[in-house]
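Subject: mismatched residue count in predicted assembly?

I count 460 residues in my input, but I want to confirm that the predicted structure covers every chain. Input:
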Amino acid sequence: MNWEVIFKYLPQLAQGAILTLELVAIAVLAGLILALPMGIARASRHWYVRALPYGYIFFFRGTPLLVQLFLVYYGLAQFESVRKGPLWTYLRDPFWCAVITMTLHTAAYIAEILRGAIQAVPPGEIEAARALGMSRFQALFYIILPRAARIGLPAYSNEVILMVKASALASTVTLLELTGMSRTIIARTYMPVEIFFAAGLFYLLIAFVLVQAFRLLERKLRVDALQGR
Amino acid sequence: MTLDLYGFGPALAAGALMTIKLALSALTVGLVLGLLGALARTSSIKPLRWLGGTYSTLVRGVPELLWVLLIYFGTVNLMHALGELFGKPELELNAFAAGTIALGLCFGSYATEVFRGAILAIPKGHSEAGMALGLSKGRILWRVVLPQMWRISLPGLGNLFMILMKDTALVSVIGLEEIMRRSQIAVTASKQPFTFFMVAAFIYLGLTIIAMIGMHWLEKRAGRGFKRSAA
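Triage response: the counts match. Full output below for your records.
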């Protein structure tokens, strides 16, 4: 193991790690916003409300993220209307393509987490809210969603960690995040073991910090106590 | 979209076959590693527990793609040294072997936790009963613990297998001609990226659906004997 090489390229790897964090941060937040209406619709009692999010979730969970990324980055360029459209500035930029794909992908998973969480809210609490004269929307916003947020938080934290790892795929569309940066450095130094080792340590560090942060948040929101544990 | 897929149909079918082969071989490696990991994790020997824990934590914390790249490019020197030892200096890990090892390693690290949970879920009285009957430790493991562990962990393993099926796409990065790589080749020749990546997506969707049906069947089969004995 050549430690000198690792130390020499540490700043560049850190730069890649920052891009990784940027990608993940935007994706998991935008994904959450996108997943909210989908998760609520997915928990609906009416099949026609459930059908569309179900199809979306089925596609995005059943196909590899790599395929989705290539569909957005290379695939959309097949259509003349997209190339001439107003969104082309974003769709030909690998950063935005990665962000869009990761958001769409993670939204499908988060929507499923939300559905599970919404359905896990004790029915008695919803009935109590309705008995107090709350409308359906009031019950949703004041009772069901805050409760579901706490129930779904542990699963959401898992999803965030998974997205950190999934972000490595962005390197396949020429983005210089942690993995992409490592591959560039390796092309220069021919030292795959050292550089990938260092990149692996960065991923472990990011995952560790995120796990601790979520643990803190869970304690603050008293997730354990609320789940009767 | 024309139905003959610009003549790439057979190539894509061959790619799908390669994907299935890769998934099954990685599954085999992963199940063995997962079992070893779980036995180490639940062992009464402290260094073994530590080893199993380190394996599952380290592998799960690093992206699958990085493992594929690390094992494919990182073992060149190692394979070279091994080759010289056996008089075959050209020895190299091909993409299929590297993919199998990398994906198997990742599957195994998750399977370790699934198996561990299953082992812990088996009532302690069962192995105590085995001991009271005079069975050896090995026989208790083989006859009492493993059959129950297998049944309990099947749903978890099914999920992991679905994830593995999708992760096989990563091996296209090191050039193995599975669905993803074949689609990329078709895209280069036909200039129809959306068409071919969409076709790839639907092949993966089909494969995961088949895997899902297979897992349901396996779960039902494994649960059958259990229900009968419980009644």
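Residues 18-175 of chain B form a domain with the MetI-like fold fold (CATH 1.10.3720.10). Marking this ticket as 'not a bug'.
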